[in-house]
């Protein structure tokens, strides 16, 4: 069973908020991106290296549940988990906690692998799946 | 049966794109906002009027499916549909088409009604539900 | 003397605001982009056509003066003016008015012309300067 | 003479880029915000504390010079400097370096102090100026 989790911290800016005084619902995508990028980097394969191999990972779907607000200047924690070695899609689960450790958000973001030249979907590159196997029991 | 649909057009800016050359996945939230705001306005109750009555509508959940890319300078169409008169949650369905009329995105965005002063969820205000009844068979 | 002005309207979204309840200072760049894009389009040469000719126009400098706030749901007017036929730089002057016609913002945005392949600055393409000459007394 | 400088690091996201493959010119505002927020925090007075005292700091003007591009995944450095104890305006100078230490951007951002209740400009609060005096020769 695969179990890999990465915690990333980020401090909320004015730029992230809206006039309701909390993070704008449409700004969570960058928080998920931050989470998954730092997870992949820690595994030893920064996303930019994948692109150098000609692979890009466009987003296929997002499911997002807003549990509690995120406020200005809070130091939030984005917990990112991957549960399965990807075949053609890679699923990232994000749980965001506010500064007090309270659950604020849950999301599932699914990405696919695409050959940059052909624009066609491809299988997960071995450079990535091999690394993920290291985290499998 | 309720059936209300509004089409909103928008031209993609550089600001919306990312280095993949298409609209950044995290920028769709503002497209949905544009769609639902224009729908409510057309019904005769701009969202800002709700706020003046002390009601805000925070987002509860988003489900988003990326079917095709949206490119720079395309004049896209955001089709927004409401299928049910809301009780405590209001569901907006968004279908986005690119300039050629090709399906690009499908999303369901659920909002709740909240009393601005107490911060507590409330029922859909009659000012809104009465208007929606007009669109019901 | 060259004198070309284009007015573009835009309605402020929640996405544009911050917790101070007005448009976030860092979101004006997209308003300027909207203004200059629509000006160039109206002249008969959409920016995307320039790119097809291999020319991109990176921003060189921005000077921005915040005179009054822009509020949620306001239908603002972005007035964009070009005063000189460009040689190697093109200067856009933007004046933004709120819904009541009150001056809200003044900006000067300078762009350069760059050959997409070489990454080197080039002179303004004739396709553009010829069009601008039409607006010269 | 006052001389206070703070270096803040940030890694560029896809969210920050545009289809030219570099940070969108309109996204620098959040980099400046990050720089000045971290400077004030380090001085011992987080901006949020000013707001609790009823003072907000709207932006008055921005001057921005784009010297070199900032690329995806680069770990950039935002160097923020304050040169004078503010009376009614506070000037922040930002110099941004790319991962290789190359100058990428220079900006001057001027903010004013405003009483949150009256909406009127006020003098710099002593809580802030006293701290700044500590950095004066």
- Calculate the terminal CA-CA distance of chain A, rounded to whole Å: 5 Å
Helicity level of chain A = 10-25%
Oligomer: homotetramer
Total number of domains of chain A = 1
Report the major sheet of chain A: 7 strands, antiparallel
C-alpha-based Rg of chain A, rounded: 16 Å
Low-confidence stretches of chain A: none
CATH class of chain A: Alpha Beta
| CATH homologous superfamily assignment of chain A | Hotdog Thioesterase
- Mean of residue pLDDT values of chain A: 95
CATH architecture of chain A: Roll
Any idea what the shape of chain A is? Answer: globular
Beta strands of chain A, count: 7
CATH topology of chain A: Thiol Ester Dehydrase, Chain A
Which pair of chains has the greatest number of interface residues, and how are they split between the two chains? A-B, 21 and 21 residues
Structural class of chain A: alpha+beta
Strand content of chain A: 35-45%
Number of helices of chain A: 3
SSE arrangement of chain A, N to C: EHHEEEEEEH
């Amino acid at each position: 069973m695969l179990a890999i989790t990465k915690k990333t911290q980020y401090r909320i800016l004015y730029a992230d908020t809206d006039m309701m005084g909390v993070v704008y619902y449409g700004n969570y995508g960058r928080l998920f991106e931050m989470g998954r990028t730092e997870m992949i980097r820690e595994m030893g394969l920064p996303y930019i290296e994948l692109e150098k191999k000609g692979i890009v990972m466009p987003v296929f779907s997002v499911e997002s549940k807003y549990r509690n607000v995120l406020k200005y200047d809070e130091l939030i924690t984005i917990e990112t988990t991957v549960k399965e070695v990807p075949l053609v899609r890679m699923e990232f689960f994000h749980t965001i906690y506010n500064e007090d450790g309270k659950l604020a958000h849950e999301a599932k973001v699914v990405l696919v692998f695409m050959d940059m030249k052909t624009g066609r979907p491809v299988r997960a590159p071995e450079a990535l799946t091999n690394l993920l196997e290291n985290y499998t029991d």
